[in-house]
Amino acid sequence: MSKKSRTILFFILAFAFSIIAPSIVLYSEGYRFDFETGEILETGGFFIKTNPGETNIIVNDKKAYRTSNFSKSILIQNLTPKEYNVKINKDGYQSWEKNLGIFPKKVSEIDIVLFRNTYEKTLNLENVLDVYKTEKGFIIKKETGFYFYNLENNKEELITKNTNWDSIQI
Predict the structure, then answer these.
(1) How far is 86 from 96, CA to CA, in rounded Å?
(2) Contact 131/107 with Cβ under 8 angstroms?
(3) What is the C-alpha separation between 123 and 125, in angstroms, rounded?
(4) What is the pLDDT of residues 102-134, one digit of tens each?
(5) CA–CA separation, 170 vs 164, rounded Å?
(6) Residues 45 and 107: beta-carbon distance below 8 Å
(7) Cα–Cα distance between 48 and 141 in angstroms, integer?
């Protein structure tokens, strides 16, 4: 290889290095090129903690993340500064949705508790001798007397001589 070709190769490689090295350093420091605006922007992120675990997290109707049942949290990073639509859902629970902004070099912490769609009350079945099903609930025979468990309001009431039998409908 001649001296002229080595010199040309050296300048080509030096030029490539001067372009690639700063790009790698900027990328590792959290800078990204935004193709919409044509600018280099600093990134941010979301740190999302959910209760219960194993929830689905959807950002801008595109990318889905999933928390684990063990950690119940996830870090979503390298997001350019703008508003993102964040949806958190799990089967059997009410979903959560909100538009949240990302700021340069900031991680927004989000702590979400999802509530069940339905609440199932368990009956106190201690000392139950017998159970009779009715249209609006159950008549429960216990050692202490007869009780009516109303399914509409999830209440257990003692049946006495003053009980309104129109509300029970056997």
Answers:
(1) 8
(2) no
(3) 6
(4) 999 899 999 998 888 875 555 566 677 788 777
(5) 12
(6) yes
(7) 49
3-state SS, residue 94 = coil
Does the bond joining 52 to the residue before it have cis omega, within 30 degrees of 0? yes
Q: What are phi and psi of 16, to 5 degrees?
A: -65, -40
Cβ neighbours for 66, distance < 8 A, ≥ 6 positions apart: 54, 55, 56, 57, 74
**21 residue type, one letter:** A
- Digit-coded pLDDT (tens) for 16-57: 999 999 889 888 888 888 888 888 889 999 999 998 888 999
Task: Measure CA of the first residue to CA of the last residue in the chain; give whole Å.
Answer: 103
CA-to-CA distance for 60 and 2, rounded, in angstroms?
56
Going through the chain in order, the beta strands assigned E by DSSP cover 31-34, 39-42, 44-51, 56-59, 63-66, 73-79, 83-89, 96-101, 107-113, 128-133, 137-142, 145-150, 155-158
Q: How far apart are CA 81 and CA 84, in angstroms?
A: 9
